[in-house]
Amino acid sequence: MVASPIEQVQIDPVVALQIAKCFNDERAQDEDRIGQLTGYIDRSSNVLEVTHSIPSPVETEDNFDEPERYALDYLKYIREKGCDHLQVGWYTSSLNSEIFTRSFLNNLVSFQMNLTESTVIVYDPLKTAQGHCSFRAFRISQDYIDMIKYDAENDYWPEPTLKELRDGKISTKDIFEEIPVALKTSFLANMLIYELEDRDSFNPRKSFLEPATSASLEKHLKLLDKVVDEVVNDSNRFNQFQKVTGKNQQQRQTWMAKRRQENEQRRANGQDELPLDEVNSVHKLPEAPSRIEPMLRSVQMKEYTDAVADFATKSLGKLFITDAFQKSS
Amino acid sequence: MSGRAKYWASESSSSSGSETESEEVVVKKVSTKKKKVVQAQIYTDDESEDEGRVVRNLKDRRFDELSEHIKKAQNMRKINDFSALLNTFKDYGTTLNKSAKVIEKEGLPRFYIKELVELDDYINAKWEDKDFKKKLSKQGSKGLTTLRQRLRKYFTEETKTADELAKYRENPDASEEEEEQASDASDGSDASDDSMSGTSDEDDDDLSDSGSDLSGSSDDSDSDSESDFDSDIGDDPDNEFARYTIEYFLKKDKTSSKADKKVRRKKEPREQKEKKEEEDDDWTAVDSGTVGKGDLKILLTGEVQVFPKDVEVTVKNVVQKLAEITAMRTPKEADRQNKILFYKKLREMASEANVGYGLEIKIRLSTISSCYDYNAKHKDYMSDEAFANALNETLELVQILLKNESIILDDDVQDDEESLTDQPNEDGKWHCRGSLVSTCTKLDTEYSKLLQNSDQHSEEYRLRLSNNHKIMQIFEEATEWAISQKKKQQICQMYLLKVKYIYYRHDSQKGAEGGQQKIEQFCKYIYTNDETQRIRTQAILYNIYNLALHDKWFQARDLMLMSHLQESITNADIGTQIIYNRTMVQLGLCAFRMGKMEDAHLALTDIQSGNRSRELLAQGFSMARERTQEQEKTERRRMQPYHTHINTELLECVYLVSAMFLEIPYMAEKEFDGRRRMISKQFHYQLRNSEKQAFVGPPDNMREHVLAAAKALKVGDFKSCIKFLINPKMNQKVWNLFAETDKVKDMLEKYAKTQSLRVYLFSFSQFYDNISIDWITENFEMSSSEVQSAVSKLMINEELKASWDEPSRSLVLHKTEPTRLQNLALQLASRLNQLTESNERLCESKQGSNFTAFYQSNRMRDWSRNNNRRF
What we know:
Helix content of chain A: 40-55%
Mean pLDDT of chain B: 70
Distance between the termini of chain A: 63 Å
Largest sheet of chain B: 3 strands, antiparallel
Number of strands of chain B: 9
Distance between the termini of chain B: 104 Å
Strand content of chain B: under 5%
Number of domains of chain A: 2
Strand order of the largest sheet of chain A: 7-6-5-4-2-3-1-8
Number of strands of chain A: 8
Low-confidence stretches of chain B: 1-52, 174-269, 271-294
Strand content of chain A: 5-15%
Oligomer: heterodimer
Mean pLDDT of chain A: 80
CATH superfamily of the largest domain in chain A: Cytidine Deaminase, domain 2
Structural class of chain A: alpha/beta
């Protein structure tokens, strides 16, 4: 299916509120909540409109298949109501921009395999609470999707190997793509907002100049430290792998040379030649460490640094404003 | 002997049933039924005797049997074999029972009574001799006890015998006439019996007799009993028993034990005469040129015979004899002792015959080596007597060598160069092969074995240790000799041996004065003249040890560093490694005494970590490791003699204290540092263990004292720290072991004060803005200059962020604790540094090392710049 990719995700305010409600719940802190999104694709402008969300019930041990049935039932009902029932993705939340995990990737892959236009919407309740309403949409790049092969027998998509990644020239930044998100409110709602703004106008008494990012900055630094540590480990592991590979190559070469010599002699004696591919059984190639995980970590690291940079710029901006205030007063 | 005993025993048993009524026995008939061996024996007898039948009287037979047992018992007594003696005593009983009829008729035989008296005396004497009893083996002492009891019982039960005994005791010579008569009557049959006993096994008897005799006489403990036994014989030569023994002694007369026995034969005098001649031929007809094999014997009188009486002692004979003695196989202890006696006798005779120094030295060397000859399987060290023997022999050898400069004793002398004649070689010198140095070395090893195998706290150990002086004398003289011979290597070896005996002694000890200079002199000689690595290494180590012992820390340390032994010691043999360990430990102790805790800790860490100090210093075994018997034996052989031991408790204490003084301030300094490492694992372990305890009682042992001190130090409480370190208990256990106790204690006190000040400043400076110097001096009992120097040192090392405010005489502290965020950022920075490093390694493996070199140097510069700018 060759179609131009989605350029924008448009979220209905109802959906946004539904998602926010889902995660602003008290229990949301310690539960991993997700939900499904329905909507339709506007081919003319390549916009994905999300019009409904279905929160998945919390999975427990006794209702193992319930969420799925629930989602199906739900879809059936809204179809009967004449609403959009096309599953266009799912939503999840992230505290402190901790998103890019392996399960996140796998989920997204399976969605996108069903419907190429599927996306994931990530909501950050912490940021939202601080006043920055945060909805972000991601999808997996087409290159990555093209690279992985479907394993029909086991019904899953195996992780790409190191070699595949190298051949596909996929680098860290080529896995995920972020799609701009737009909130489109109805005119009626807009009017209400204006109305509300008028009533409760901007309150300068609020300490809006306070940087107030110290806590999350600390948190981010800690997380960053952790992920860097992991990357260091990955790097070491990789280093080890390279050493072993180098050694293995050498062994293989000496083995091959010996075998060739032997073969030459055999040829001279009129005997059958010995196969050369036995080398694989004699000197097995070392197993390469998983590549995708370090890549995901790198993505995550980038995410953290971006967040830190974001905090920093905002704080710096505020500092400049303060400076200006001081000078003027 | 045993064959014969068996013969008698079996004969009596087979004959007792059928022949008691007929008084005569036909031996010939009986003997044909006997085993082959016995047959053969009898056959030879027959041959020599020309007689078909021997007719003997029952009484004689019984009494012979009895006297046989008695003879055996006498031998047993000489070698103190109590269990065997007990058996023989039982045999008396059975024989007496059998001959009850005869005794009824004749009364108890005189010789038996005499034997009982002697036995009684002997047992009593042994019983009184406490020393002897202590030395006895378990079996032996058991035998002695039972034998004594049996004897007592026997005397009380058999009152008649006891009466006889008393009578005998009163007048040993009484009734000898009648006995004489009785014996005369029996003589006739006796004679035939004697010849019956045969000559073929007489030789063996003699040998074992002499063997036991010898071991008996060498044992001083029973010499008294033996001597009175001898005098008894002298007193009443005519009694029945004496006839059997004394005539042996008297008539054997250095040629043969048997030939003369036949003098007494009255029956068949003709044959007897023939026999005598025959025998005489056997024993005296010795070719004067060659010496027969059978000449070596020790007579029961204690005379040692090497040559037949009338043989001229010539060089050739002596050489041959020496070879013969050397070739002797000596399976038994007694035989080995004999060998030494033979050697001695040979030497005496040789020197009488003046066969020349060459031979004499050779004989002496053989003697010494046979002194060291003991059964390694049976026990792995020599007896005290043998050692004393060896010591004397070596001393004499050395003295001869010193006196006669014309003797050359060298390993390189060839066989044909040896001066085995009564003339020196052409160059006017006596050449002899052998090595005095190796003799001395052997003496040294045997000596240490002797020490290893005695209990360190016993009198025995002290006695053995008293040989030290004599050994030193030998070494002294041997060294003199080596110097006169101008053999550098040998001088080095001798010096090393001497150093080995003095290096561990402090000059202040009695008898060790001037040891330092001596060691200095010897070691210097060895450094310049030694050609083997081993001697030099050991000399260096001994030298360092001695220097460290005398608190010459810098000299000792420099020597250790200059020798580069620390790098190469793992390649050395185990003996040298042990010396190295000992030296390092001594160095550590020295550093501690000088107040250099870091050095002390460093030197002791290797030995103290892993709880193997005793094993590493060769002062004992570690229990944990499994080892085979063989390993254990070799390990035992490496043990250091007790008087050179280094007290392990002192070691541990010094180690713990030095670790405490390093660790506690460090812990205080880096309290919040995530990357804090441990300085001493062992100390940490102990500290953790004691902190785990819910209730800590007052300290009892050394370790608890140190830990309590550590805890006091942790809060900067120097007073209780010192109190825990220096108190009567610790003084007694540890500190008094140092030569200069007070100096060490002063040092400790001072050190404790400075360290607790450091700890205090590290731990509590955050609560102060400034501290007055006066307050510090007052609270830490230090002078203000001491405080200044201690605190300034901290500032210079950037351990404490503070500065002096001179006008107000106070210490101003700067607050420099980074915020949490800053800490995190620092952590992240270091982590990132790691990441780049590992990334570079990755690149390197791909691109080769040159790729990153330039980049790296740039980066490092940036990094350091960033670091400086951090705050």
